[in-house]
Fold this sequence. Notes:
The chain is of the alpha+beta class.
Amino acid sequence: MGYAASSPNKQSKQERCSLCGRVFNNAEDLNAHKQLDHSEHSHEPAGVS
Ligand SMILES: [Zn+2]
């Protein structure tokens, strides 16, 4: 989706899940992972499109 041509000069900051230690390329993936794999508020659909 948001994958444009990654510029070589831009250091990609990796986001690490503090719950399971998985590493993601961006905060969006991390947040999505948390909601999917660590859904603490499963009864609270927050903007599921
Ligand atoms: Zn995790």
